[in-house]
Protein 1
Amino acid sequence: MLLDIDINKKEYNKITKILKQYSIIAESIEKIKSVYKIKYNDKNYCLKKLKHGNKKILKILSFIEYLKSNSFENMVSFVSVREGKEYIKTKNSIYYMTEWIDGRNCNINDIEELKKAALLLSDFHIKSKGFFSKELKIENTFKNYTEEFKKGKQDILRFKKLIENKKIKTIFDIEYYEAIDKVLKYVDLSIEMLIKSKYTDLLRKAKIERDICHNSFYCKNIIVDETMKMYIIDVDNFSYDIYIKDIAGFIRKIMYKRVYGWDFNVAKEIIYAYSNINSLSKEEYELLFSLIMFPYKFLKLGRKRYYKNKRWDEDKYLRKLRGTLKFIDNQEKFAEKFIMFYELNE
């Protein structure tokens, strides 16, 4: 048997014991990030471990079954244990196995693939809507973004005061401080657009219709096979939420890539692909704008530095800050074009 050097003897013994319950004698075991790639009879399988109780796996199984009943075919299939179960429970963990999709991650540098991924996300949102289980509690992650954004603004203003009161300022302090006023404009713009969107009405609608968010829809969780079919993986953290959060997070992550640098035309194409299936109202465009523009990375970095005192060296802090701010001027142009194109000033 071929064995990954990252797997120790104790781990290997545990995995082989699990595999016996699938009547599998592995030809090779390879650990890739948090999963095991198992080769058996010239086919590959994915074995995954959960640290939570069996309610978590039952929730995932039930959700995937619901998606497939709604003709969503871009998910991997579970492999049953020989007793017919679809998972194995040990003392501290749950293991489950799926087919292994031979392919690669969605290419973030390929705009055509990103558009296809947006189309896939849109289909996922439509097909997952309404999922419900009497037996299982489905987490909801609905937020009061108005309050969250206002708190974020207060924190940034506190960071400004903290830096002003420091007798000795680091390079990080100076560069963070110099960016604050511009960043606060984006915060205010996000809050203003959030209020315009009638967010509470959108929230109420999402709760009634039981909208679902993937919560980790990024290129690393999209597999493209040799036929160019896309698969969504890692649905472990889905929840009830406003689906705009997914597409906003997807676009925001893309915009920070050097190849795009907050190019509105790229975002526009992705949004167009998404809305081809799941059309958006004006209020949803306003919410989308708000969630894309809010400076999460800048705020998070400030909290790590000035509240949590995270022990990073100065160079790491500066790399993070400069990476966050490298397209700050482009963001202003992005906001102007977004508002104009979707007529959000009316």
Note: Residues 171-196 form the longest helix (26 residues).
Protein 2
Amino acid sequence: MESVLGQTAGNLEYYILDNGSADGTGDIIREFAARDARVHPLAEETNTPMRRFDPEFLGFKDLEYDYWVMLDADDQYKPDFLEKAIAFIEETGAGIACVGSDFIDGPTGRELGKRQNPAPGVLDARALERFFPESYQFLRTIWGKLYRKSVIESLDWDRYYGFNLGNGRDTLFVFHALERVEKLAILSGTLHRYYLWPNSIYKTWNNARAKAYSVLFAEGERLLKLKAGAVSPRNLDFLLLVYMSSVVDMMNPLFTSEIPQEEKIAAALEIFSSPEMRLLAKTKVSQEAQKRVLLDAACSFLKLDLVRNSEFAREAAELCAALQGG
């Protein structure tokens, strides 16, 4: 909160949500609100991962504002984030301005790396097919960006929430926002600090993850078709690589989760029988990487006690066929 309220461009309104916390977060927010009229507390009694955050729902649709920004509860913006992002978006006429991030290990505070553009640049969103793979690292997250009010007001929020995603909702939001802009500005350097934690939601399993990554694959195709009229072979290969990377990230949370083994088998079968995996198996995209993914999944699968149970022989055969792309 201090990183937001301490911005050098201080003309802002800060809507902050206590999303069903049980650790005193609400008290901290109310203390800040009592000291600073820019802070507007919001609260949910229980945690709601897909909580609406559009202006109409939060009650500031009619507020006079020019830009819109998001920030996760455990991250920070550097003091001059707004000042520099606003100046660059005004200079370039872009609809969205992206900034680089420092990646910080949450428990130790140690810097793990950076994601940044070496030089400031402006990309023509109508030619997205030319720079989609190279710029994708800046397209995945809702935070680290400044959005014009016109972009936020033009979003089809009902369509966005209709997907009801947990994992991947940030990327889905950015895809939908990019549909509505002509220019994307990327600043050089880093103006955002992203903290990584061992218990991150990204490292835990939920049954909607496989669906979420299929949605992102389809919405990525949709975005490229809207901007370029078609998905080039290069960008299709890239979307498949992103999907395969997501499968890699899903395997450990799935097989180390506490859900029943029969549910693990069913989830793995769904993942490896997906249209995206079948399409990937027919391509020449990173075949060695594909083999490593399949081998790791097969090893995890064969460790399950139920695989040796004749009751699950059919499911085991189906999954093995899926792992072979058959």
Note: The radius of gyration is 22 Å.
Protein 3
Amino acid sequence: MNILKRVMIAAGAASGHAACLNLWERRPRREAAVRDMDVAPTNLFHGPRFLVALVMLLCLGVTHAAPITLKDDAGHTLTLKAPAQRVISLAPSLTEMLYEAGGGDKLVGAVEYSDFPPPALAVPRIGSNQKLDLERIASLKPDLVLVWFHGNAQREVEQLRALNIPMAYFEPHGIADIPGVLERIGQLMGSERVASAAATKFRARHAALQRAYTGRPPVRVFYQIAQKPLLTINDQQIISDVIRLCGGVNVFGKETMLVPQLSTESVVSANPEVILTARMGGGGSAPLRAMDEPTLADWLKFGKLPAVKNRQLWLIPGALISRHGPRILDGAQAVCTALDDARKHK
């Protein structure tokens, strides 16, 4: 056995492929194929140049993908042997993140309300974020599940974990956390370049909004999550970060609970200058003045409340403000527009 074949056999063993040995067996045909070339076969098939080029480019260049390891927002270390090919998303925001990070074509199942971008509408449904269809999920044979940390029902997630499917938990608490989630999802999908570009674009737009609204007069804001029971958010929730971005102050930001329950009297006592709530359904990205909105009607009886007196009750598009994803900056622009209106009418 000559030196060329010995090196090719060694390279084939090192790379884990039979390509090198197959290449050796086809060598006589390759030599015949170049007899009509202007370059002498001796220069192509003999000597150190051929040996190095053949082994390095055709053998050692054939490698297995390196494992992917990262830490998710639950503090878990996740390792995939290769980029995910069949993904389940357990939140509409994660569905949007997956597409933005370049992995939308690998999505095989998503929860209800995963309606953006439009291709997501065609993806099979696997239940809601609170009630998962575990049999349906198992039948789709996913190799990765994206979980909304604290957003999905814990009991459902634990049952899903029993299926031994790799799971990655994500939940950005601030606007600045979103690009990092995009980048980590890109890692899991093997689409780092697309995810990095999306993250860079997001950071640039976020910085532009910060420059535009830094230093504007503060506005006292009450954000109503639900009417009955009356719920809001504290400063640890991402919507509160949006309010801060626009120069607003969450009047219940110091509450201990992430989503505290309130009394009507506590809201009146907080004396908000603006009252915001999400508008579910419908299109558009602009805020809508909501003096006739049924879910805010209870506040109209408090005519001395600055938000009521100055007509500063607003609906913000729910898909933009309530999802922890790339479009939250569109929701932020809507909030900033509403707060600017309030500044004009102080």
Note: The two ends are 91 Å apart (CA to CA).
Protein 4
Amino acid sequence: MERVYHYKAVDKMGRSVRDSLMIEDEIALKRLLAQDDLFLLDYKPQSMLEQTIEKLSFKPESIHLFTTRMASGLQVGIPLGVILENLIEDQTGYFKQVLKGVEHHVKSGKTLAESLRMYSDYFSETYCTIVNSGQGSGRLGETFFHLGKLYEQQKENRNKIRKAKAQPMFYITVLLVFTVAASIWILPNFVKIFESSKIQIPLPTQILLGVGELITQGGIFILLTLVGLGMFWKLSVQKSNGVQYLLDHILLKIPIIRSIIRYSETSLFVHFWHLFALSGVPLVQTLESLADVPKNQVVRESIRRVQGNVSKGMSVSRAFNEQPFFADNWVFRELVKIGDDNKEMESILPKIFQDHDQAMIESIDRLMPWINKLLLAISGIVVGMFVAGIFLPILMMFEVAKNL
């Protein structure tokens, strides 16, 4: 694992140089500085805590910016080394150290793709494979241009999904705050008025008081339990392929959710397939590289089966038709068949992902009214409970007063 080293060195003229670099170890640091006629005087590796904190501050948008600027520079003929130097100057924080490391590996003789692979936390294997193909075909600038377009489209899709989730999350947050505040502070003080009159507190009021008591007395335990379950889910359940496959399979059975997953996963897969096709990568290698692109395990397994069948000589359209996930998608199925039959797959693929990007947004728009109706129903139940919990004791007190 590479670490960031802060170092102090001197050049041949005796001038002091202070900088930092992400590199394998101190031996590699000395060797690299010697290549630049620098003599290492002192160094200090960055602590793992500092490195972890800086990693957490990394923004994925930095990869998009790196990609688009690489495309702009390469397409006008600027040398790779010059582009990297300027990108390093424009960056701050941990990603700057990553780019310094990339520059170091390029200078030492590695290809750009090999250098990017050294930082797999930031540059995925699919990304590096596409860059390697572009470099091998002599179309690296064009490859980065299409990668940048892909990142831009994915960013737009994420923003639309985030915007669609914002309203439900706001409703849920307000509802939780209202429930907690009313159960802890409002109802207990209100009920004290009626306890002296020895009126039996009705069931809705008792339930709400019980919720408030549970939160006040066991709130920390509940919070720790939720955090523990979240960590267990993240570290164990999500890393269990069997459990994740089952959950992903269940999601594909829910009508509207199935449509969103189908269009988003297929669009992302076809976007990358198109990039590989432009770079001249053979289809079997493309499918093998793209098997891990989708997040849904069912889709991943379907692509692996397609790749296995194509490698045995089966036609592309038939291989996809044998997988239920793709066979149920008539637009994908028919367009792939046309591209396969006419040997025009490279020109057909953009039509597929453009259609699916639009279809995904339409599916989200269809889902939102149902979510709003569900939230409205839940809000009605909660508010109804509070109304009953507050006004039932008042009505019962009026009844007692009438009988006096």
Note: Residues 138-404 form one domain.
